[in-house]
Amino acid sequence: MRCSFHEMLQSPDARFPVGAEVVTSRGVPPSGENPPPVALARELLKDPRIGWISVTDNPGGHPMLPPDWLAGQLADFSQNIVLHLACKDFNRIGLESQLWRYAAEGFENVLALSGDLPVEGFPKPGKGVFDMDSVTLLNMIRSMNQGLTVPGRGGKPETLSPTAFFPGCVVNPFKRNENELVPQYAKLLRKIHAGAAWVLPQLGYDMRKFAEIKRFLDLQNMEVPLIGNVYVLTKTAAKLFHSGKLAGCVVNDGLLAEIEKYTAGADKGKSYFREFAAKQLAVFRGLGFAAGYLGGISKPDTFLEIMDLAETFAPEDWKTFYKEIQFSQPEEFYFFDTEEMPEPNPVLKKPQRTGNINLFYRFSRSVHTLAFRRNRALYPLFRRFFQLLDGKSLLCRLGLKLVHGIEETSKHLLYGCQDCGDCALPETAYICPMARCSKNMRNGPCGGSNGGHCEAEDKPCLWTIAYDRLKYFGEWKDFTESPVFLQNAALQGTSSWRNLYLDRDHGVPTEERPSRDGHLGSR
């Protein structure tokens, strides 16, 4: 009898389980008992070596049948299906509704994703929602598992029956620069603190980076199962990954040149690609990963052929493959400077002055310390001022409107403020995530940046700038310990100054969320 996905990762045995990725399609599938994605999934699940099926959620920003449609055709394998759930298409209400549906239908394994920017839609590409990100989605899942408390009848709190989700997350270690890589690891810690129970790295072909994730988690004393990600390449896919146009997927010049050499052969590189994938599975097993994961395949025979090939390798062959598969980017930064070094790269402890450490940033920090840090300096005075303005009289309303106008105008000129009413500037080193991030990320970067630039290719990733600034002042580590930041959408168009001083924004200390005084973004 096949173990559940949860059991495979939490209680591993000598067998190295492998999952298979299945992608749905756009449009109504052909009529018949088993449409192609369903037929593929059922055929794969016949082989006991395929531990689970993982179903994508509109990958690459393309509209497709939702993952729960396919899962519904495979209800008898519910414990061996992982559903991807991305934040790009639903707000928090829609995401919660999706999760209730999954729970009601018995699907408990969820991969929580921020998601790719939409690239298609009718009649033109749509706008991503990104009301939540992967961290806040994981936090919501954890709350549902604990028994979500909601307003009940008559306004009395009601605690709902707890769910039993087994959520996972992703991380992208394939970043060339320090200020892109370290924020990825910091956000990984935030995801685990928010409830992620397993980790699937994004795609790259440098085994040293995969090994580094495990070393990083070991350094944090976090025993979280890792799943090794293998995408079976083709020449077309390799060129796409190499172009940087598919977020989170990296193929360097050296690997592309090798692929072009092998695809010039009689079999168009078929044997090379399958052996390459099998070698990756062998390395993941040798490194102590909990499982492997195969994607990029549409035929059951290809999955099984790769697994058959992986089983032919000798126990120590993975060490040779590990050295072979190190296709790094030029001058790539590693969290551990050498593979023998037990401690992080010494560069991480050295403040570095960059163009991002400018007078404007210093000015913003000084003003924040003087006026906006909770219970410090001018904070009590401004708190009392806004308490007086919070009345219902005409004078109070006019006064508040005047102050809000001053705030909105000054912050828009200085930071591009979008008047969200729940300001995140202190947490993001005074770069407005509503104005300067295509996904409004408040809890760390997505995995889509390329060379320090946003996935949308129209601006620098705000988190590379934030990292440089916070590291220089010794505050970056505090970011991993900060509370989860989730904007209160009901505050849109209101004064964030008033909301701060009157304890109405996300910065309010609670028993569950300790005060941030002394930490990144302390108020």
Summarize the structure.
With 523 residues, the protein is α/β, with parallel strands linked by helices. 39% of the residues lie in helices and 9% in strands.
- How does CATH name the architecture of the largest domain? Alpha-Beta Barrel
Task: Give the distance, in angstroms, between the N- and C-terminal Cα atoms.
Answer: 55 Å
Counting DSSP E segments of at least 2 residues, the number of strands comes to 10
**Which spans of ≥5 residues are poorly predicted at pLDDT below 50?**
510-523
Counted up, domains total 2
Broad CATH class of the largest domain? Alpha Beta
Our count of helices gives: 19
- CATH names the topology of the largest domain as TIM Barrel
